[in-house]
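User: Design a sequence. Structure:
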């Protein structure tokens, strides 16, 4: 476990340890899709202190400009860092990661882990060489995504599909509304009706992880679904364990949103089930 590993490091430095202090992991997303990444990290490190931040005021990010996303994410992370000692930040949003990581890493001293389309794992998985990238408009258009494809997928055919509707369906699922398989089928119909459909689908948005069961029902039986949640979790813990100086917290897990509204009633209950004892409003 991560806490035991860190305790050993502290003992070697003759620093007293306390079982109630933990590294603080900040997980950020435009909505609740980032909970899929949080869950994977928590499997490895259940004792860490978690802060979950979602920008429900500007959600969804998929159709926003790069300039807006970069500035927005920067201001949010800066606001959190001014209030809490952050050990590591995870940008659990493909859209935000593909455009804002450079600025974030230049400004903040703590490590920042991004979430980007899992191109390389998909290439290793595909059997027919046709890979579907399911993502937001901003992720597909980003320079980072294009570079990943040009660098690693020259021998594969990458078909791309953006859908803000799928993002909304995933968000509503967290709030308790069952996703419509008919709507999902209409969105991905152009792939299914191809002479040879993609046999491997990259879930290029953390919201889509939440729809994996529904997507499996509408795609051909042997279709493989690739996401980066497990790799992100392992990378996050590795970076914490290998930090020279680690910031600790004795706080409880809690969440921040950018806007308090009536839709949060159900979400408060969901967040409590996920381990977040309170939901606060963040002002930037």
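Assistant: Done.
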């Amino acid at each position: 476990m991560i806490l035991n590993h860190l305790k050993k490091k502290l003992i070697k430095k003759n620093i007293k340890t306390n079982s109630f202090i933990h590294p603080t992991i900040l997980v950020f997303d435009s909505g609740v899709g980032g909970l899929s990444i949080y869950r994977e990290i928590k499997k490895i490190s259940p004792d860490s202190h978690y802060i979950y931040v979602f920008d429900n005021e500007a959600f969804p990010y998929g159709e926003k400009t790069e300039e807006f996303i970069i500035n927005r994410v920067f201001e949010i992370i800066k606001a959190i860092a001014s209030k809490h000692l952050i050990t590591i930040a995870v940008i659990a949003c493909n859209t935000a990661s593909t455009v804002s990581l450079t600025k974030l890493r230049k400004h903040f001293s703590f490590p920042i882990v991004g979430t980007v389309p899992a191109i390389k794992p998909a290439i290793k998985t595909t059997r027919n060489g046709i890979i579907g990238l399911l993502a937001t408009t901003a992720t597909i258009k980003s320079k980072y995504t294009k570079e990943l494809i040009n660098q690693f997928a020259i021998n594969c055919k990458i078909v791309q599909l953006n859908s803000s509707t799928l993002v909304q369906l995933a968000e509503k699922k967290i709030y308790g509304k069952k996703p419509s398989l008919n709507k999902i089928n209409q969105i991905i119909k152009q792939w299914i009706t191809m002479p040879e459909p993609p046999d491997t689908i990259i879930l290029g948005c953390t919201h889509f992880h939440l729809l994996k069961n529904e997507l499996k029902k509408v795609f051909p039986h042997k279709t493989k679904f690739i996401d980066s949640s497990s790799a992100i979790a392992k990378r996050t813990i590795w970076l914490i364990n290998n930090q020279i100086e680690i910031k600790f917290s004795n706080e409880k897990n809690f969440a921040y949103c950018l806007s308090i509204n009536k839709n949060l009633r159900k979400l408060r209950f969901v967040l409590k089930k996920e381990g977040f004892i309170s939901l606060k409003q963040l002002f930037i």
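Confidence is low (pLDDT under 50) at residues 13-19. Residues 66-83 form the longest helix (18 residues).
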